[in-house]
Amino acid sequence: MDGSDSYLIRPHHQHKFRPAAVKECVREIVRERLSEVRYDPEEVPELTRSLADSIKDKLKNAGFDRYKLVVQVVIGEQRGQGVKMTSRCLWDADSDNYAEDVFMNDSLFCVVAVFGSYYY
User: Fold this and answer.
1) Which helix (H) or strand (E) holds 104?
2) Which of 32, 49, 50, 92 is paired with 26 by a 20 to 30 Å CA distance?
3) How far is residue 11's CA from residue 21's CA, in Å, rounded to a whole number?
4) What is the side-by-side strand order in the sheet with 67-77?
């Protein structure tokens, strides 16, 4: 990397955070890992950590140069209840974005949110 790239204030178009591509990546990993899993409160903490790490590792190799990635995973027992999640942050609408995906089976639900914040 030469010195001219070190002061970029906007990502190049091909390196922008693309929510659709991120969502597809998240969906693939979550469905692969959770399709046959039953809710077990003893296993959920480690499962959420490993799922978040897997998603983060795959996205780091997806070409989002200079992006800080935050992966949030919530897994809960499926009992017919409603769940609402919200988040707030301060970011640059031109370069920062997020993607989310929801997975449900008969036993559990999983909500994944990935935030991409450009590092100036």
Assistant:
1) strand 97-104
2) 92
3) 17
4) 67-77, 108-118, 97-104
**pLDDT tens, residue by residue, 75-85:** 999 988 888 88
Backbone angles phi, psi at 61, to 5 degrees: -90, 5
- Is the separation of the CB atoms in 69 and 116 below 8 Å? yes
- Using the predicted structure, report yes or no on whether residue 1 has a pLDDT greater than 50: no
CA distance 12 to 1: 14
**Which uninterrupted H or E stretch holds 92?**
none
Residue type, 74: V
For residues 55 and 37, what is the distance between their CA atoms, to the nearest angstrom? 18
Assigned token pair, 49: 């950590």
The alpha-carbon radius of gyration of the chain (Å, integer) is 16
Return the DSSP state at 6.
Answer: G
For β-strands 67-77 and 108-118, DSSP reports them as: antiparallel
